[in-house]
Design a protein that fits this description.
single chain; alpha/beta; eight-stranded mixed beta sheet; 8 strands; about 35% helix
Amino acid sequence: MRIDLHTHSTASDGTDTPAELVRNAAAAGLDVVALTDHDTTRGYAEAIAALPEGLTLVTGAELSCRIDGVSMHMLAYLFDPEEPALLAERELVRDDRVPRAKGMVGKLNELGVAVTWEQVERIVGGGSVGRPHVASALVELGVVPTVGDAFTRDWLADGGRAFVEKHETDPFEAIRLIKAAGGVAVFAHPAASKRGRTVPESAIAEMAAAGLDGIEVDHMDHDPETRERLRGLGKELGLLTTGSSDYHGSRKTVLLGEYTTDPEVYGEITRRATGAFPVPGAGGAR
């Protein structure tokens, strides 16, 4: 089985619609794909309706968190999307995205960059706005060559010249909310240092004690040495270790299925979840 547990659609900051994403996942030879848009579940219905035969969809979300001034992301799998407390927290985070993005546009204007909110809105196309959309605007204007090049201290990285903070959930509260909604919590790309400051291993140990289920190990932002270190940490703390592409369509160079999760780990995730179940494809809309 080939299993990719971290992807994004146009419901947040990917470039594939949810329907295109599941069709592309099947074409890439995946058996299981997780839809984990940022702080939203809006892509579920379209993805399920288009789900090809032979592909299983894991519903999820990537929650924006912050601990001791460090931004981090928590992958939530197979939770009840209508559970009130987690739904309210997702809406709180999502509602703060627009004023935050407008603030970044304002800072860029002060730096002499002629980006406009209308340009960013066009790029978002009805999804959940985030920094990658602002980064894409910078690429369009020729300010930086790629989206990744916008995530530096010069521009949009944490603490960068055009960075604006947003509401982010305490990770311990996120774990509690995910578990209460019947979901499984996995810390996304925990050692992605090129994105900015990372969470210390001591804090990961505290999260493990608080119910964290796993850490994402095999990821494009982790070099081989980092992956081995994280694998050892996961074993030491009794955490599941996952692998995934963090696919964003054309917004990143990584391909669907470029990094995958062991089938036994996937099986344990599905065993632990009580809020929702994986959805088997039935040859959806073509």
